[in-house]
Amino acid sequence: MGKVYLTGAGPGDIELMTVKALRVVKEADVIIYDRLANPEILEEAKNGCEFVYVGKEDGRHIMPQDEINEVIYQNAIKYENVVRLKGGDPFVFGRGGEEALYLQERDVKFDIIPGITSAISAPAYAGIPVTHRGVAVSFRVVTGHESPNKKVSQIPWDNFKTDDTIVFLMGLHNLPKISAKLMEIGKDADYPVAVISKGTTKEQSVVVGTLENIVEKAKNVPTPALIVVGKVVLLRNQLKWFEGNA
Description:
Blueprint: E1 3-8, H1 19-27, E2 30-33, E3 50-53, E4 56-57, E5 60-61, H2 65-78, E6 81-86, H3 96-105, E7 109-113, H4 118-125, E8 139-143, E9 165-169, H5 175-184, E10 192-197, E11 205-210, H6 214-217, E12 225-230, H7 236-239
Parallel strand pairs: 1-6, 1-7, 2-3, 2-6, 8-9
Antiparallel strand pairs: 4-5, 9-12, 10-11, 10-12
Helix pairs in contact: 2-3
Protein backbone atom coordinates (compact mmCIF):
# COMPACT_ATOMS: atom_id res chain seq x y z
CA MET A 1 0.00 0.00 0.00
CA GLY A 2 1.34 3.41 -1.00
CA LYS A 3 0.94 6.84 0.51
CA VAL A 4 -1.31 9.64 -0.70
CA TYR A 5 -0.32 13.30 -0.62
CA LEU A 6 -3.43 15.51 -0.62
CA THR A 7 -1.66 18.48 -2.11
CA GLY A 8 -2.65 22.09 -2.60
CA ALA A 9 -1.48 23.41 -5.96
CA GLY A 10 -2.02 27.05 -5.01
CA PRO A 11 -4.16 29.61 -6.83
CA GLY A 12 -2.72 29.47 -10.36
CA ASP A 13 0.68 31.15 -10.45
CA ILE A 14 3.05 28.17 -10.39
CA GLU A 15 5.54 30.14 -8.29
CA LEU A 16 2.98 30.22 -5.48
CA MET A 17 3.29 26.46 -4.96
CA THR A 18 4.93 25.45 -1.72
CA VAL A 19 8.37 23.84 -1.71
CA LYS A 20 6.88 20.68 -0.23
CA ALA A 21 4.16 20.47 -2.89
CA LEU A 22 6.73 20.76 -5.65
CA ARG A 23 8.87 18.06 -4.05
CA VAL A 24 6.07 15.48 -3.88
CA VAL A 25 5.03 16.28 -7.45
CA LYS A 26 8.57 15.51 -8.60
CA GLU A 27 8.55 12.22 -6.66
CA ALA A 28 5.05 11.11 -7.65
CA ASP A 29 4.32 7.83 -9.41
CA VAL A 30 0.85 9.08 -10.31
CA ILE A 31 -0.80 12.52 -10.11
CA ILE A 32 -4.57 12.75 -9.81
CA TYR A 33 -5.39 16.34 -10.65
CA ASP A 34 -8.34 18.67 -11.03
CA ARG A 35 -9.29 21.49 -13.36
CA LEU A 36 -7.98 24.34 -11.21
CA ALA A 37 -4.44 23.01 -10.84
CA ASN A 38 -2.06 24.81 -13.19
CA PRO A 39 -1.20 22.27 -15.93
CA GLU A 40 2.39 23.56 -15.97
CA ILE A 41 2.83 21.77 -12.64
CA LEU A 42 2.56 18.42 -14.39
CA GLU A 43 5.69 19.26 -16.39
CA GLU A 44 7.64 18.98 -13.14
CA ALA A 45 6.78 15.28 -12.78
CA LYS A 46 9.38 12.60 -13.38
CA ASN A 47 9.50 10.46 -16.51
CA GLY A 48 6.99 7.65 -16.33
CA CYS A 49 4.63 9.39 -13.95
CA GLU A 50 0.99 8.68 -14.77
CA PHE A 51 -1.65 11.40 -14.89
CA VAL A 52 -5.33 10.98 -14.04
CA TYR A 53 -7.69 13.90 -14.70
CA VAL A 54 -10.73 14.13 -12.45
CA GLY A 55 -11.68 17.75 -13.07
CA LYS A 56 -15.06 19.31 -12.39
CA GLU A 57 -16.73 22.37 -13.80
CA ASP A 58 -20.26 23.69 -13.90
CA GLY A 59 -22.51 21.21 -15.63
CA ARG A 60 -19.68 18.84 -16.57
CA HIS A 61 -18.25 16.42 -14.05
CA ILE A 62 -15.75 13.85 -15.31
CA MET A 63 -16.78 11.71 -12.35
CA PRO A 64 -18.68 12.22 -9.09
CA GLN A 65 -16.80 12.69 -5.82
CA ASP A 66 -17.39 9.16 -4.56
CA GLU A 67 -15.74 7.79 -7.69
CA ILE A 68 -12.81 10.19 -7.28
CA ASN A 69 -12.35 8.88 -3.74
CA GLU A 70 -12.19 5.33 -5.09
CA VAL A 71 -9.75 6.30 -7.85
CA ILE A 72 -7.39 7.73 -5.23
CA TYR A 73 -7.70 4.56 -3.14
CA GLN A 74 -7.11 2.20 -6.07
CA ASN A 75 -4.02 4.14 -7.09
CA ALA A 76 -2.71 3.92 -3.52
CA ILE A 77 -2.94 0.14 -3.84
CA LYS A 78 -1.02 0.27 -7.12
CA TYR A 79 1.61 2.98 -6.52
CA GLU A 80 4.00 3.98 -3.74
CA ASN A 81 3.66 7.76 -4.12
CA VAL A 82 0.24 9.15 -5.05
CA VAL A 83 -0.29 12.89 -5.40
CA ARG A 84 -3.85 14.18 -5.33
CA LEU A 85 -3.29 17.66 -6.74
CA LYS A 86 -6.03 20.15 -5.96
CA GLY A 87 -6.30 23.82 -6.89
CA GLY A 88 -5.82 26.21 -3.98
CA ASP A 89 -5.92 24.45 -0.62
CA PRO A 90 -7.34 20.93 -0.18
CA PHE A 91 -9.36 21.93 2.88
CA VAL A 92 -10.86 25.18 1.56
CA PHE A 93 -13.91 23.96 -0.38
CA GLY A 94 -11.65 21.39 -2.02
CA ARG A 95 -13.36 18.33 -0.49
CA GLY A 96 -9.98 17.25 0.78
CA GLY A 97 -11.56 16.31 4.10
CA GLU A 98 -13.86 13.84 2.38
CA GLU A 99 -10.96 12.27 0.51
CA ALA A 100 -8.86 12.05 3.66
CA LEU A 101 -11.68 10.35 5.58
CA TYR A 102 -12.17 7.85 2.76
CA LEU A 103 -8.49 6.93 2.91
CA GLN A 104 -8.41 6.83 6.70
CA GLU A 105 -11.32 4.38 6.75
CA ARG A 106 -9.29 2.09 4.47
CA ASP A 107 -6.03 2.37 6.44
CA VAL A 108 -4.24 4.30 3.70
CA LYS A 109 -1.49 6.62 4.92
CA PHE A 110 -1.78 10.21 3.79
CA ASP A 111 -0.21 13.62 4.25
CA ILE A 112 -2.02 16.95 3.91
CA ILE A 113 0.02 19.59 2.09
CA PRO A 114 -1.72 22.96 2.43
CA GLY A 115 -1.79 25.33 -0.52
CA ILE A 116 -2.27 29.08 -0.81
CA THR A 117 -5.99 29.60 -1.18
CA SER A 118 -7.37 31.89 -3.87
CA ALA A 119 -9.51 33.48 -1.15
CA ILE A 120 -6.55 35.61 -0.08
CA SER A 121 -4.13 35.38 -3.01
CA ALA A 122 -6.45 36.45 -5.83
CA PRO A 123 -7.55 39.59 -3.96
CA ALA A 124 -3.90 40.32 -3.15
CA TYR A 125 -2.97 40.09 -6.85
CA ALA A 126 -5.88 42.42 -7.56
CA GLY A 127 -4.57 44.97 -5.06
CA ILE A 128 -7.29 44.17 -2.51
CA PRO A 129 -6.14 43.27 1.02
CA VAL A 130 -8.82 41.18 2.73
CA THR A 131 -7.96 42.99 5.99
CA HIS A 132 -6.65 46.51 6.44
CA ARG A 133 -6.24 48.64 9.55
CA GLY A 134 -9.09 51.05 9.92
CA VAL A 135 -11.12 49.36 7.18
CA ALA A 136 -11.51 45.64 7.92
CA VAL A 137 -10.40 43.63 10.94
CA SER A 138 -11.90 40.32 9.77
CA PHE A 139 -12.88 38.41 6.67
CA ARG A 140 -15.20 35.51 5.90
CA VAL A 141 -14.79 32.91 3.15
CA VAL A 142 -18.04 31.47 1.83
CA THR A 143 -18.93 28.95 -0.84
CA GLY A 144 -20.74 30.66 -3.66
CA HIS A 145 -21.94 27.38 -5.12
CA GLU A 146 -24.23 25.17 -3.08
CA SER A 147 -25.69 21.95 -4.41
CA PRO A 148 -29.00 22.59 -6.22
CA ASN A 149 -30.33 19.51 -4.42
CA LYS A 150 -30.24 21.28 -1.05
CA LYS A 151 -33.72 22.20 0.11
CA VAL A 152 -32.38 24.67 2.68
CA SER A 153 -29.27 26.82 2.22
CA GLN A 154 -26.52 26.34 4.79
CA ILE A 155 -25.20 29.84 4.14
CA PRO A 156 -25.99 32.00 7.21
CA TRP A 157 -26.87 35.18 5.33
CA ASP A 158 -28.09 37.07 8.40
CA ASN A 159 -24.64 36.69 9.97
CA PHE A 160 -23.09 38.73 7.16
CA LYS A 161 -24.64 42.01 8.25
CA THR A 162 -21.56 43.21 10.14
CA ASP A 163 -18.82 41.35 8.28
CA ASP A 164 -15.92 43.53 7.16
CA THR A 165 -14.91 41.49 4.07
CA ILE A 166 -16.71 38.56 2.46
CA VAL A 167 -15.05 36.38 -0.17
CA PHE A 168 -17.30 34.07 -2.20
CA LEU A 169 -15.54 31.22 -3.98
CA MET A 170 -17.06 29.61 -7.08
CA GLY A 171 -19.96 32.05 -7.00
CA LEU A 172 -19.99 33.79 -10.36
CA HIS A 173 -23.12 32.08 -11.64
CA ASN A 174 -24.87 32.89 -8.38
CA LEU A 175 -23.81 36.54 -8.38
CA PRO A 176 -27.38 37.83 -8.88
CA LYS A 177 -28.55 35.86 -5.83
CA ILE A 178 -25.53 36.90 -3.75
CA SER A 179 -26.00 40.59 -4.52
CA ALA A 180 -29.72 40.44 -3.85
CA LYS A 181 -29.33 38.58 -0.56
CA LEU A 182 -26.71 40.99 0.74
CA MET A 183 -28.90 43.99 -0.03
CA GLU A 184 -31.85 42.16 1.50
CA ILE A 185 -30.01 41.81 4.84
CA GLY A 186 -29.15 45.51 4.87
CA LYS A 187 -25.98 46.09 2.86
CA ASP A 188 -26.16 49.36 0.94
CA ALA A 189 -26.77 49.19 -2.80
CA ASP A 190 -23.53 51.14 -3.37
CA TYR A 191 -21.47 48.74 -1.22
CA PRO A 192 -18.19 47.90 -3.04
CA VAL A 193 -17.77 44.58 -4.86
CA ALA A 194 -15.00 43.12 -7.02
CA VAL A 195 -15.09 40.07 -9.28
CA ILE A 196 -11.66 38.56 -9.93
CA SER A 197 -11.31 36.13 -12.83
CA LYS A 198 -8.39 33.71 -13.16
CA GLY A 199 -6.60 35.35 -10.27
CA THR A 200 -2.77 35.27 -10.07
CA THR A 201 -2.45 34.12 -13.70
CA LYS A 202 -1.56 36.05 -16.84
CA GLU A 203 -5.25 35.99 -17.77
CA GLN A 204 -6.32 37.72 -14.56
CA SER A 205 -9.04 40.33 -14.96
CA VAL A 206 -10.87 42.39 -12.36
CA VAL A 207 -14.26 44.09 -12.48
CA VAL A 208 -15.19 46.53 -9.72
CA GLY A 209 -18.69 47.77 -8.99
CA THR A 210 -21.39 47.85 -6.34
CA LEU A 211 -23.97 45.40 -5.12
CA GLU A 212 -26.45 47.20 -7.35
CA ASN A 213 -24.52 47.10 -10.62
CA ILE A 214 -21.95 44.30 -10.34
CA VAL A 215 -24.17 41.71 -12.04
CA GLU A 216 -24.36 43.79 -15.21
CA LYS A 217 -20.72 44.85 -15.09
CA ALA A 218 -19.44 41.29 -14.62
CA LYS A 219 -21.78 39.52 -17.05
CA ASN A 220 -18.98 38.61 -19.49
CA VAL A 221 -16.35 37.63 -16.91
CA PRO A 222 -14.96 34.11 -17.52
CA THR A 223 -14.65 31.45 -14.83
CA PRO A 224 -13.02 30.55 -12.53
CA ALA A 225 -13.78 33.71 -10.60
CA LEU A 226 -14.32 34.82 -7.04
CA ILE A 227 -16.24 37.70 -5.51
CA VAL A 228 -14.96 40.12 -2.87
CA VAL A 229 -17.48 42.23 -0.98
CA GLY A 230 -16.29 44.99 1.32
CA LYS A 231 -14.80 48.46 1.65
CA VAL A 232 -11.31 46.99 1.13
CA VAL A 233 -12.22 46.84 -2.57
CA LEU A 234 -11.78 50.63 -2.69
CA LEU A 235 -8.07 50.21 -1.92
CA ARG A 236 -7.54 48.65 -5.33
CA ASN A 237 -7.24 52.10 -6.94
CA GLN A 238 -4.04 52.66 -4.98
CA LEU A 239 -2.72 49.12 -4.59
CA LYS A 240 -3.30 47.39 -7.92
CA TRP A 241 0.08 46.17 -9.07
CA PHE A 242 -0.22 42.94 -11.01
CA GLU A 243 -2.15 43.66 -14.20
CA GLY A 244 0.32 44.85 -16.79
CA ASN A 245 3.21 43.22 -14.93
CA ALA A 246 2.17 39.62 -15.54
